[in-house]
Design a protein that fits this description.
- With about 400 residues, the chain is α/β, with parallel strands linked by helices.
- It has two domains: about 120 residues, Aspartate Aminotransferase, domain 1 (Alpha-Beta Complex); about 240 residues, 3-Layer(aba) Sandwich (Aspartate Aminotransferase, domain 2).
- The protein is about 35% helix and about 20% strand.
- The chain contains 13 helices and 15 strands.
- The strands form three sheets. Strands 4-10-9-8-7-5-6 form a seven-stranded mixed β-sheet, sandwiched between helices. Strands 1-2-3-13 form a four-stranded mixed β-sheet. The chain has a four-stranded antiparallel β-sheet with strand order 11-12-15-14, covered by helices on one side.
- Helix 2 runs antiparallel to helix 10.
- The longest helix has 24 residues.
- The protein is globular, with a radius of gyration of 21 Å.
Length: about 400
């Protein structure tokens, strides 16, 4: 039977009926340990009672009223994000791509409204991923993702990730900002070398441009801190969030200092659905859970357990896995051979993982994953490597 869906996904022949915590259950009742979490989206796993309650209660009151009116719930979530971060102001959208589009527009307008309209270009990095809009595709510059969509949107320059000298050489009089993932996710869980992010901060300050972090995948506790910039000790001017912020409900946010966002005045940017009441109810519940010292400390402990187990796997199966990469519960294994085959083999063993560039499989379990589930995932990886 021909599907009515546009064929833009190479989907696995698998579908799920429900989820429980870190587990997915397919339509035949088979259980799978979910170490993809909707690609780092389901921060609190599946059917978390706090999120279900928050969404259900709000759905019974009011879904949407638009940003033509005050939305106190939106104000409350924004205030909590500001209190937890470097930022002074927040713009809500519906996705990571929208959060990055806001950041890109903010950077250009920041300079234009200050009398520097010639500063409109964004320095970005090879191997990055910022979304699927024309603007965010151009920012990442991946030729495969740009193929067939006409000339890329102008205004983006890419250099090698981790090469500070290359970044310094590419900044010119038209550069408005630097856009970087503190850890590249889709690029293969690539952690920057020591001092690199601080070097970018220094470059931004020296040239009077903005430093913008794409924390769509790293943010909301994924690395063991609320935001990865806190772990790196490097404070950006702008930060994009999504994925874990809604725990599975679509929500994105662009955070900025008041100085960086000074040009974003009434009418300069908008979103019909952004910050709607359903999204805000869920985001507030996520922050209630994740935004505590005890919770984040537990993420660090679980991340260390997973990393140690993966290091043992690499040592034991060096012919299959080349290296482990990552921080906290954002881990990757670089395969020596057939990465798609390993993803499928792991699924056959009951473990869901996500593919990435550079022949890497991503392990992005829900932040509520338990020690026994981590050990079970490591055992599945061991069996899959032994049979591969």
């Amino acid at each position: 039977m021909t599907s009515a869906l546009m064929p833009t996904y190479a989907r696995a022949a698998q579908s799920f009926a429900r989820g429980e915590g870190a587990w997915l259950i397919d339509r035949d009742g088979r259980r799978f340990l979910d170490f993809a979490a909707g690609i780092a989206v389901c921060a609190l796993g599946h059917a978390h009672p706090r999120l279900v309650e928050a969404l259900t209660e709000q759905a019974g009151r009011l879904w949407h009223c638009s940003n033509l009116f005050e939305v106190p719930e939106q104000e409350a979530v924004a205030a909590r994000l500001v209190a937890a971060s470097f930022a002074d102001v927040v713009f809500f959208g519906n996705s990571g791509a929208e959060a990055n589009e806001c950041a890109i527009k903010l950077a250009r307008r920041h300079h234009a409204m200050a009398g520097r309209p010639e500063r409109w270009r964004i320095l970005a990095f090879e191997g990055s991923f910022h979304g699927r809009t024309l603007g965010t595709l151009a920012a990442a510059g991946n030729p495969k993702n740009l193929l067939g969509f006409g000339p890329p949107v102008s205004g983006f320059d890419q250099v090698a990730f981790g090469d500070l000298a290359a970044a310094a050489a590419r900044i010119g009089p038209e550069t408005a900002a630097i856009l970087v993932e503190p850890i590249q996710g889709d690029g293969g869980i690539r952690v920057p070398p020591p001092g690199y992010l601080q070097g970018l901060r220094d470059l931004a300050d020296r040239h009077g441009i903005l430093l913008m972090f794409d924390e769509i995948q790293t943010g909301i506790g994924r690395t063991g801190r609320m935001f990865a910039y806190q772990q790196a000790g490097v404070v950006p001017d702008v930060m994009a969030l999504a994925k874990g912020l809604g725990g599975g409900f679509p929500v994105g946010a662009c955070l900025a200092t008041a100085r960086a966002a000074a040009g974003m005045t009434a009418g300069s940017h908008a979103s019909t659905f952004g910050g709607n009441l359903l999204a805000m109810s869920v985001a507030a519940a996520v922050l209630d859970t994740v935004g505590t010292t005890d919770f984040l400390a537990e993420v660090e402990r679980r991340g260390a357990r997973l990393a140690a187990g993966l290091d043992e796997l690499v040592a034991r199966h060096g012919a299959v896995f080349e290296a482990r990469r990552g921080t906290g519960l954002m881990q990757g294994l670089r395969c020596r051979g057939d990465q798609p085959g390993m993803v499928a083999r792991l699924r056959a063993h009951g473990l869901i993982v996500a593919p990435a560039q550079d022949n890497v499989i991503r392990l992005l379990p829900p932040l509520i994953v338990g020690p026994a589930e981590i050990d079970a995932a490591l055992a599945m990886l061991d069996r899959a490597a032994a049979t591969g």
